[in-house]
Amino acid sequence: MIDTNSSPQDNELAIRLLDGSPDGFMLVDADGRIALANKSAAIMFGYETSGPKGLVDRRVDELVPDELRARHAGHRQTYAVDPQRRPMGTDLRLFAQHRDGDMFPVEISLSPITIGGEVQTIAAVRDVTERRETQARLLLHEERERIASDLHDLVIQRLFAAGMSLQSVTNLIESSVARDRVVAVTDELDETVRAVRSAIFGLGGHDATRSLSSYLHSVVDERSRHLGFTPDLVVDGSLEDLPEFVGEQLVATVIEALSNVARHADATDATIRVTRSRHAIDLVVRDNGRGIGEAPKPLGGLSNVMWRAAELGGSCSVSPVEPSGTELAWRLPV
Predict the structure, then answer these.
(1) Helix, strand and coil in the chain, % to nearest 5
(2) pLDDT above 90: percentage of residues in the chain
(3) Per DSSP, what are the bridge partners of residue 116?
(4) Do 289 and 193 sit in the same domain of this protein?
(5) How many structural domains is the chain composed of?
(6) What is d(CA 105, CA 84) in angstroms, rounded to the nearest whole number?
C-alpha cells in the first residue's frame, strides 16, 4: 500500500488518505494475516489503532463470525488461487464480528495486489448497519401504508355503505323491537368505522405520501358519494406541524359531522372550514338541513367527539342555525 520508491511526503499523504476514509482498509497477506490496517478498520472492529492490541498481525478470520470462520478460511484459499477484483454492492449479505462478539452487516470489496512478488489482498470494509436499519424502516413503513390503504379502501367503505343501507330502511320497519335492533347495529357500525380510522392513523396512513390537508379533501370527496353533493372545504393556515393526535381528532370530527349530515340532515349543501391560528385549531361544519332537534345521544358519535375535545382541553358544540341547518363548532389548543 505504501510505495517504497515514493517520497516520504507521498507516503505520508497516502497514510493520511487511508486514515481519513470512513471505510476500513486492510492489507491481508497470502497466509491470511493483516499486514496493514487504517484507523477506520480498527475502530470498526473494536481494536486499538496501533500497538499490540491493534489489527496488524492478527488473522483476518478473527473478524468473521465464529460459526463462519472455517468456511471463510476455505473461501480465502479459493480466492488466493484465482484472485479477482470484487467491488462493493454485490448484494451479498455479509456479516463481520466486533471484538466484543457482536455481529454487524458489512459490504466488502477485494482487490489483489502484488507486493515483493507476493500476491496480497486489499480488503475494503464498510459498515452498513445504518443503511440496513433505514431499509428495514422503509419496508415496515411501506407495509403499514399498504395495510392502511386496504383498511381505508376495502373495509371502511363497505362498513360505511352497510350502515347507510341500514339507516335508509329504519323508518320502514314497523316493529319497534326490530327497528331498535337496526339502530343499534348502525351505531355499532359507526363505532367500528371510528376504530378502524383510529387504526389507520396509528399506522401512519394519513401522512405518508400526502399532507393532512390533502387527506381531509379525500375524506370529503369520499363522503360526497353518500351525501349527494360535495361540501365546500376551506383550510386556512398550515396543518403540517399539527401534533398527530390533534390531526387524528380533526379528521375524526369531520367524518362524524359529515356522517350526521348524511344520515339526519336531509341537506343539499354544507361547508367545512378549518382555521389554524397560533395557539388553536378550529373547525366549523355547517349544513342547510333540518337542524338538530335534540341533544346528541349520550353514547353517540357526536357525544364522543364532544367528550374527547373536552378531555384534550378544547371544546365542541352543536347548534341550529337560521334559516335552517346545523353548525358544529370544534376547537383544540395546539
Answers:
(1) 50, 20, 30
(2) 25
(3) none
(4) no
(5) 3
(6) 22
What one-character-per-residue DSSP string does 123-169 give?
EEEEE-HHHHHHHHHHHHHHHHHHHHHHIIIIIIHHHHHHHHHHHHH
Q: Domain of residue 245: give its range.
A: 210-334
Residue 204 DSSP label: T
pLDDT at 6: 44
- Check whether residue 162 and residue 273 sit in a common domain: no
DSSP 297: P
- 321: exposed, middle or buried (C-beta count within 10 Å: 0-12, 13-18, 19+)? middle
Residue ending a domain, choose from 182, 209, 236:
209
What is the C-alpha to C-alpha distance for residues 190 and 300, in angstroms, rounded to an integer?
A: 9
Domain annotation covers residue 294: yes
| Confidence (pLDDT) at 38 | 92
Given 105, 127, 149, the domain boundary residue is: 127
Q: Is 233 left (phi over 0), alpha (psi -120 to 50) or beta?
A: beta
CATH of the domain at 44: 3.30.450.20
Q: Classify each residue of 12-23 as buried b or exposed e, where b means 16 or more C-beta atoms within 10 Å of its C-beta.
A: eeeeeebeeeeb
